Amino acid sequence: MILFIPTQKRTHAMSPTQGKTPQRPDLSPWYKLNQALASAKEVGSIFSHTMAFLAEISEVKNGLLGLLDGQRGKIVVEEASGPALQRAKGNKSKADEGACGEVIRLGSAAVIADPASEPLLRGMAEDGRPAALSCICAPLRWGDIPLGILLIDDPHPQSDDGLTLLKAVASFISPALVVARWGDEKSLNEILRRKLERAIARMDLHTESHGSLMSDVISLVERTLILTALKKAKNVQLTAARFLGINRNTLHKKIKELKISLP
Asked: For the packed helices 213-232 and 237-244, what is the interaxial angle rounded to 10 degrees?
């Protein structure tokens, strides 16, 4: 993994006339996080390393990790830490509810203006009094597949630095979460199913399919498979056909039908 992400602690280059060498951003916390994620096998471990990193570079004290349960359409707080958010662990809400649901739907980070009213954060209040906490939330994604959210307190609520940092961290830890939580469950079938569901959900039922959605999708999948197999086989059709599990004549026929150009 290539790593070049600046920390929140900014440094300013000094004038050459001052006779001092310009300082560079300290990347060691990001490097340590990268090393920790490489060996983390569980979601809890990934979250612990992430919170330690955030506390080191930005004074974050509270955070939670919510992951989607796609089969039930819910988001579940898998991990939570800090005096204000630890009570939220185990909470569930519909994946499209509240500001957290909006973050998942839009795929963009946001400020949680009223944390106490968030369905996913119920139980934050102590002795009936809502906890005074400014929160920010970023989506966790694997490509265009939503995984959940990372939510933390915002030690600098008047600045956009927290959102910028959180987006970077959420993007950084998402691949590790996929491996730790889903592993081989993210099969080709699952990836295709999710992508198709999301694409079709955005389509208008009456105007966009033109009555040919099934054939269009099948043609697209066949074309992509054949092109990829041919590239992998260095355009040797017999090898590509065996890889795809079809005979050479069928592959040749498909190449003609789909008007695939060969070198």
From this structure: 130
pLDDT, tens digit (0-9, with 9 covering 90-100), for 143-160: 888 999 999 998 777 788
Separation of alpha carbons 154 and 161, rounded Å: 10
CA distances from 52 to 28, 97, 226 (A): 13, 29, 46
Each domain of the chain, given as residue ranges in start order, spans 25-185, 204-257
DSSP 23: P
Q: What is the mean pLDDT of the chain?
A: 82
Burial class for 58, CB neighbours closer than 10 Å (0-12, 13-18, 19+) = buried
Spell out the CATH class of 25-185: alpha beta
CB atoms near residue 54 (< 10 Å): 25
Report the alpha-carbon distance of residue 29 to residue 8 in Å, rounded.
Answer: 11
Inform me whether the pLDDT recorded for 19 exceeds 60: no
126: DSSP letter: B
256: which 2 tokens? 């003609």
The predicted-structure confidence for 41-50, as pLDDT tens digits, reads as follows 899 999 999 9
Which pLDDT value is given to residue 9? 43
Architecture of domain 204-257: Orthogonal Bundle (1.10)
Nearest CA-CA partner of 169 in 11, 29, 23: 29
41 phi and psi angles, rounded to 5 deg: -110, -10
Q: With 50 as the cut, is the pLDDT of residue 21 above it?
A: yes
- Backbone dihedral angles phi then psi of residue 91, each to the nearest 5 degrees: -65, 150
